[in-house]
Amino acid sequence: MGAASVKHMRVLVVEDEKTLARYIAEGLRDRAMSVDLAHDGTTALDKLGSGEYDIVVLDRDLPGAHGDEVCRRLIADGGRARVLMLTAMADVGDRVTGLRLGADDYLGKPFDFEELVARVDALGRRSRPALPPVLRHGGIALDSGLREVTRDGRPVVLSNKEFGVLAALMAAGGAVVSAEELLRTVWDENADPFTNAVRITMHRLRGKLGEPTAIETLPGVGYRMAGRAA
């Protein structure tokens, strides 16, 4: 379905039209992003206060706290999330108002989903330090543009979660990444902190990458890529 960013992004979609919200969330999850949902401004503010997001896809006309107020509060509280504001009001005056409130980008409804993804990806690149389009470690190459992984030239087909875990480990540059951090960044707010999802995904990922073992486990600490980076 197109390119996904190697930086595994956490996105909060704030949209009161539940069918549209699910459509956006499912599409972004297909791009290996972690997505949480809020259907009103008050819930959005609660989630922003308790979670760390890279991108907020924010409908402007919301029940509870208006989208303008959500944007204003996010900026005032020093939030680092980039804001893509959605609205049915697409004239120049509305765009200017949204941008002056602190929104980073603006997309009028109805919109093309591929354009929304492109804008989310662009904001994601601005929200974090840039990484090379292809990450390499040993014989493993992870191409963010094509969303492809190879090992010693052999294609490795991964699920979204497996891709996200491998991207997080390779982006860490050999540093240890805890299971808690992987749950937070690769899954979403509904992930059970006591789940064995990380362990199961890691087992499948190792199996697909083959021998020698590409990922080390440090008991009680976390995981890291084995050996030296390319």
From TrEMBL:
Q: Which GO terms describe its cellular component?
A: cytosol; protein-DNA complex
The record's annotation in Gene3D superfamilies points to: 3.40.50.2300, 6.10.250.690, Winged helix-like DNA-binding domain superfamily/Winged helix DNA-binding domain
Q: Which InterPro entries match?
A: CheY-like_superfamily, OmpR/PhoB-type_DNA-bd, Sig_transdc_resp-reg_C-effctor, Sig_transdc_resp-reg_receiver, WalR-like, WH-like_DNA-bd_sf
**Residues annotated as transmembrane:** none
Instruction: Tell me one GO molecular function of this protein.
Output: phosphorelay response regulator activity
Positions carrying 4-aspartylphosphate: D59
Q: Where is the OmpR/PhoB-type domain?
A: 132-227
Residue intervals of the Response regulatory domain: 10-124
Keywords in alphabetical order, please. DNA-binding, Phosphoprotein
- Pfam families (alphabetical): Response_reg, Trans_reg_C
PANTHER family in alphabetical order: REGULATOR OF RPOS, TRANSCRIPTIONAL REGULATORY PROTEIN CUTR
Protein name, per record? Winged helix family two component transcriptional regulator
Origin species: Paractinoplanes brasiliensis
Source taxonomy lineage? Bacteria, Bacillati, Actinomycetota, Actinomycetes, Micromonosporales
